[in-house]
Amino acid sequence: MTTSSYQAISIELRHCAKTFPDGTRVLHDLDLEIYPGETLVLLGPSGCGKTTTLRLIAGLETPDTGGQVLFNGQDVTALDIAKRNVGMVFQSYALFPNMTVAENVGYGLRIQKLPADQQKQRVGEMLEMMRLTKLANRHIDQLSGGQRQRVALARAIATRPRVLLLDEPLTALDAQLRDSLRVEINLLLRQLGITAVYVTHDQSEAMALGDRIVVMAEGRISQIGTPRQIYHQPKNDFVADFIGTMNRVQGNISLRRFTCPAGSLAVQADDKEQAELMFRPEDVRVSTELHDDGLQGNVSASFYLGDRTRLLVDIGQERHIVVESAARCELQPGQRVVMNLGNQAALVA
Hints:
By secondary structure, this protein is α+β, with helices and mostly antiparallel strands. The chain contains 11 helices and 18 strands.
């Protein structure tokens, strides 16, 4: 199957809010534009409104009065899910246990009343793409979790939907299988070139899959950007703390001595007694040479993680500094260390 089989569309949400019958406002007035062919990830904690946003796009929910959902500029707000031609993949798979793999994959094609020969061809293409050909005649209860999720993906894209919507599809799987399927989904979406919206609370998943990430909190958008922008240029404290780990060092320290080489962003705040310096664990260079310039502290804990070592360093402030160091770093609790930041590593508040 070629990417020409799919027509990438744009999606726009205008003034979309959602209030449940009991009066609970789960989504505040929201504007969002999704570009043709991009994978947009909705990321945030439980209850932030990401799944409700996905359901508005799907047609499973209707926005409050005045809200609009547009596909390629066409208002589809009043259309239900069947008429929007979207493919959906759920955490629960939602497969038919009484059908074989091939029958599950072809279910939507039968609903579309595609000619039998075209159904057979399309199902064969899907099974081959998802490496399910040898499992075509098995029933769902004979499959592993990863195989079931691949069947759900194959079924969702077999009908050549206008948009693919994925609602936490990997949450129920173990960590190793999640990592494997994350790669497969990423390759699949790039191959198809389809417009996709992916909901997750997993930051690693969002960073790996998203062309852009929408970080949500309490029914509102906190920030939209590429994975690099979200990680390195968070717009507020919530985004900074929710994406990865963020260190904070507050006033009364020599910021100039802490940053190396000169020219780091932090130098701009050198004369601010109460400046707050924010930086990521991997931006810290740690040394045991106590005569070096830098911020000194005592190692409180050391965690060997295989490909790296994580250190917690006490500098006498409320929060410890988290440092991601080389795997062979063998610093012990109580050991005195010096820390410096690399050029442009710091974010200054």
